[in-house]
Specification:
CATH superfamily of the largest domain: NAD(P)-binding Rossmann-like Domain
Low-confidence stretches: none
CATH topology of the largest domain: Rossmann fold
Helix content: 40-55%
Bound molecules: nicotinamide-adenine-dinucleotide
Radius of gyration: 27 Å
Strand content: 15-25%
Strand order of the largest sheet: 3-2-1-4-5-6-7-8
CATH class of the largest domain: Alpha Beta
Number of helices: 16
Number of strands: 14
Structural class: alpha/beta
Largest sheet: 8 strands, mixed
Mean pLDDT: 93
Order of helices and strands: EHEHEHEHEHEEHEHHHHHHHEHHEEEEEH
């Protein structure tokens, strides 16, 4: 598959907007197509609304944001995109028609995916040109924060399409779940629908309100599901013999049965009860307000799960590994040259880095210098494998001097001069520049100590890593010593 630099979207409603926000955040350009010209303003608003939560998801260095363009001409989108995601209303004939048209305008190696919640790929690819490059890629709302995407191939889809799509979705921080066989509703919506059907019955029969039913999930199973899902949790509930015991104990109840298969009739009374119930739960809060609350806790949950390397937290961790690795090998990070400091990192001042003065907050300078050092470490081989082997450099001193400001959205870059290396210590001097005018806005002098993390004490660095650092120090030997190095905190003149 071609490298995805531009994501094409067909249909820019709730789901199209979510795809746009996610792709742009991870540096992919987006060309969005919708029949309604007014959707341009809508999608730009949707991307802006997603930004505050997305920006807090990870502190890993991100590439510059992608650019968003909009067209009402499907052909323009199809001809420019490297990957196309369709998100138009859930109507089979409409989707079939539009997907066929997209396929006639896109290059043959462009993958075309549909966000459909329940239609099957074999039906959708029926009239397409080169249907082997089509698949269903079913996301979840909000697409910019939930990592799950279900991938389903149809009769004509080839495995290479599924693999390439999985690679792209992983790149933008998602968990691609390959659904082995196409079934209406894929996997997740079948499960969600079963639960929702029971909710409708319980409300219809006057057994519980919508609020009580939400409580029955929020305070119990909901907390368990995010990390372990239903089956693992039941395995744990069965004691030492796990799932086998669980099935023996509760299996007979499945026959009673507790639940109903048919959904109840959506009578006016039932619809009213559902609507009034959820309105009471919302307690006057607008959808926007509730969305913000939802987005905030979705970010927080993923960060907690990351600590345990479980579920969506594990996905976040691998995304961050990828981002750090990419920052270290980005074309802007230069190899050492005699008499020239290293250019380590190019980044941009993110919206949430800015304080009440509308300038980058002081602690973010530390973050940027830290990210730049991460690039240097990776370049010399201090990476995950090295860390896993129980060795690492720890920061023992850091002196930042502030010389200027940077505003939200401004480009920044960091250079570094290696001052001294011995078997345990690394002494580095970094300079932070503002891209707009190449003005130096901060310096950082840092001392790192090589640590044996298992023994929790200083220990010698690997010989190869030390040799690489010494070679860089050698290239830098001719550079003038930075006048700020070794400086104490100066007293500002009055
Ligand atoms: N909303 C969800 O929670 C959710 C979740 C996962 C998947 N999906 C699926 O995503 C798809 C889109 O759902 P949505 O909720 O974003 O719908 P939506 O109604 O919010 O957006 C659909 C958009 O498609 C546009 N459109 C209609 N016909 C078009 C055409 N011929 N060409 C270009 N644009 C056209 C509309 O103008 C609209 O902007 C559906 O297939 C749905 O099943 C929805």
């Amino acid at each position: 598959m071609r490298k995805v630099k531009i994501l094409g979207l067909l249909g820019t409603g709730v789901i199209g907007g979510g795809w746009a926000a996610r792709a742009l955040h991870f540096g992919i350009d987006v060309i969005a197509a919708d029949v309604k010209p007014e959707m341009e303003e809508w999608i730009r608003g949707a991307v802006a609304n997603a930004e505050p939560a997305l920006a807090r998801l990870t502190m890993a260095p991100l590439p510059p944001k992608g650019k968003l363009s909009f067209t009402t001409d499907l052909k323009v989108m199809a001809q420019r995109a490297d990957f196309i995601q369709e998100n138009i209303p859930e109507q089979l004939p409409l989707k079939q028609r539009m997907l066929a048209e997209v396929s006639r305008n896109a290059a043959a190696d462009v993958i075309i995916a549909s966000s459909t919640s329940g239609l099957t790929p074999t039906d959708l690819q029926r009239d397409m040109l080169a249907p082997e490059r089509f698949l269903v890629a079913h996301p979840f709302n909000p697409v910019y924060l939930l990592p799950l995407v279900e991938l389903v191939g149809g009769e004509k889809t080839v495995q290479g399409t599924i693999d390439a799509a999985a690679k792209f979705f992983t790149y933008i921080g998602m968990h691609a779940l390959h659904v082995r066989r196409e079934v209406p509703g894929h996997l997740t919506d079948r499960l969600q629908e079963a639960l929702w059907r029971e909710i409708l019955h319980l409300v219809n029969d006057g057994v519980a309100t919508t609020g009580e039913l939400d409580e029955s999930i929020i305070y119990g199973p909901g907390l368990r599901w995010a990390a372990m899902g239903t089956n693992m949790i039941y395995h744990l509930a069965g004691g030492e013999s796990g799932m086998r015991h669980m099935l023996a104990q509760f299996g007979p109840c499945l026959k009673w049965p507790w639940t109903k298969l048919e959904a109840p009739e959506l009578t006016e009374t039932l619809v009213d009860r559902m609507v009034e119930g959820t309105q009471a739960q919302a307690a006057g809060r607008s959808i926007r307000e509730l969305e913000r609350l939802r987005d905030d806790y979705l970010v927080a949950i993923q960060q907690v799960l990351r600590q345990y390397n479980i579920g969506a937290g594990a996905t976040l961790r691998s995304l961050e590994e990828r981002l750090y690795k990419d920052a270290a090998t980005s074309h802007n990070a230069t190899p050492a040259e005699p008499g020239k400091p290293l250019r380590l990192l190019d980044t941009v001042v993110r919206t949430e880095w800015v304080d009440y003065n509308r300038h980058m907050s002081d602690f973010r300078y530390g973050q940027v210098f830290g990210d730049a050092m991460d690039v240097l470490f990776r370049q010399v081989g201090v990476d995950e494998a090295y860390r896993d082997s129980g060795r690492m450099y720890y920061t023992v001193e850091n002196h930042i001097k502030h010389l200027g400001e940077a505003k939200s959205g401004e480009l920044l870059y960091v250079t570094a001069q290696v001052l001294k290396v011995d078997d345990k210590r690394l002494h580095v001097f970094q300079r932070l520049y503002r891209g707009r005018d190449d003005k130096q806005i901060a310096t950082a002098e840092q001392m790192y100590l090589h640590v044996d993390t298992k023994a929790a004490k200083a220990g010698p660095a690997d010989a190869k890593i030390r040799a690489k650092l010494e070679s860089i120090a050698g290239q830098h030997a001719g550079l003038p010593a930075p006048p700020e190095a070794g400086r104490r905190v100066g007293r500002a003149s009055h």
